[in-house]
Amino acid sequence: MNRLDQIDSLVWLLVGVLIILGSLTSLKIGTANDPGPGLLPFLSGILVTVFSLTVFLKATFQKRSEEKNVRNLWANLHWKKVIYAIAALFVYALLLERVGFLFMTLLLFIFLFRKIEPQKWKLVIGLSVFASVGAYLIFDRMLQVQLPRGLFGF
Amino acid sequence: MVDNILLGLQVVLQPSNILSCFLGGLLGTLIGVLPGLGPVGAIAILLPTTFHLTPVQAIIMVSGIYYGAQYGGSITSILLNIPGEASSIVTCKDGYQMARRGRAGPALGISAFGSFIGGTVGIIFLMVLAFPLVKLGLTFGPPEYFSLMIVGIVLLTSLSSKSVIKSLVVGAFGIFLSTIGIDPMSGNPRFTFKIYTLMDGIGIVPVAMGLFGIAEILTNIETGIKQEIYEPRGLGASIYPTLRDWIDSKWAIVRGTFIGFFLGVLPGGGAILASFASYVVEKKFSRRPEMFGKGAIEGVAGPETANNAGAQGSFIPLLAFGIPCNVVMALLLSIFIIHGITPGPLLLKDHPNVFWGLVMSMYLGNIMLLVLNVPLIGIWIKFLKIPYPLFFPFIILFCLVGVYSLNNNIAELVIMILFGVLGYLMRKFEYDPAVLVLAMVLGPMMETAFRRSLIMYQEHFYIFFKRPISLGLLILAAFLLIYPIFRRRRHFLLEDAEEA
Prior knowledge:
The complex is a heterodimer.
Chain A: H1 3-26, E1 30-31, E2 34-35, H2 39-61, H3 70-73, H4 79-99, H5 101-115, H6 121-142
Antiparallel strand pairs in A: 1-2
Helix pairs in contact in A: 1-2, 4-5, 5-6
Chain B: H1 2-12, H2 15-33, H3 39-50, H4 55-80, H5 89-100, H6 104-138, H7 142-159, H8 164-179, E1 181-182, E2 189-190, H9 204-223, H10 243-265, H11 271-285, H12 298-313, H13 315-321, H14 327-338, H15 347-350, H16 352-373, H17 377-384, H18 388-407, H19 410-428, H20 433-457, H21 463-466, H22 468-486, H23 492-499
Antiparallel strand pairs in B: 1-2
């Protein structure tokens, strides 16, 4: 039995079933000679379901019991840092337009430099200012990317 | 042919195109040198920038990144025993051993020359094969195209280093993702949940950047890359291989070229498989197999030639049929499409300047890389000394600005981050993100071919089995799926290379 694959295949199985239900309820499947917009999503949903079910069955009837389980996947790793990084990215994306590129990028860099693999403050401030101002000048001023201005209007 | 070559030269020798070729090769080499940033991630990150270029410039530059990375990957393999690229993993075995014996120079030299030979001969094959394949492509109708794309996805899954069934799950999911948005044939919105951004479908750029750029960083953060700064040993007296070296490696280079090119042409193939196959073959053919792993120059020359020839070969399915055979080609396809050019049988006729310009730029690029590679090694090593904790926020910044600059749309940033998390989890649970991207790129083409086949011929699903080429392709796909069940050691090449 392979616990790990049982879990991930069940997640995919759920996804597959949702795709099938979604295609059936919201789209026209059509017939083989007159395919509707729902046909391919429907078929791909069936494939996801069938294949993930196969993964599940294979994991369940696998003879050699492996030591793998979900906790082992994250054992001895800095998983908290990953969560910090993901959270920082989401906050960045959600506040970018309100606060502005320059300030948010500065904050993001300071956070990443301090929180992931802590550096000395001098280096952190120097590199963060360099990166955010440099990126602003290159992308916004030179390449005309139109980065969000936000609070401060620049 | 001569006319075409001249046309290609005319295109390439425009200063702006020379510059794109040069920048592409240089960036590619840099990416090849830096571990933790592969050509897929790098091309994904640079995609938005290429929108500001002309189509020819964009395509020349991105191609340059791809084959440049093959050159760069070998440098770190030989000097530091760190493969900069997956296609240079086998180069570590004998390349690093040569370096430890004070022969880093000839190892770097032979891999640069081998890469050049493999690359340029690969381009000649490409030129010769282009016309017949394009003729074949023109006879294809929608059913044949559909079946060919099925073969493409199946091949990538069966060559993937992860479980085949898991790759199939991901492939089917990728096809589903590609159907999100307004249906091009009926105009119905599909799975958009009234979210405005989803109307146009999920963009391939945020997905690829998330799955390869962000996910890679998350994985690296977690393991906490502790870089040890190796001082590479002296480069040896000369970078030029001796006559003895050439005699030892001449057949390895010849075989590497052929193996590399033909494995590159296969959908799902490309540089990685080519290099592994070459190493195994060289060891089998060698009169002194005991020297492999102890600094045999053939073990460097063969794979390094093969990965470049493979990189060139993998352009063929894209240029002749419009079907990408690996993720880099899938990204290249999206660049073609964004610039309003459809690669495939009509590319040669409609845009000869793009086709021949690209082919000739590969020659130019290979020559420039050969000339540049050796003098720049010192600089590449300096780049390697930048500690990862100081380096990764800049990659994140590139991803963020790159995706935002596509449409100035925050929602696409969120999509990228979500796919970053998905990619991180997929790596954990051993699902192959490359299959997802390929399926997403092929999805819309597959759907059009599929529905057209059904509507045009009014023969239900039988149409795919009635037409001989289509049937043949489907049988091939079925065989590829069933074969590994009978043959347990699916990754015999990879395993042999591991054991070797």
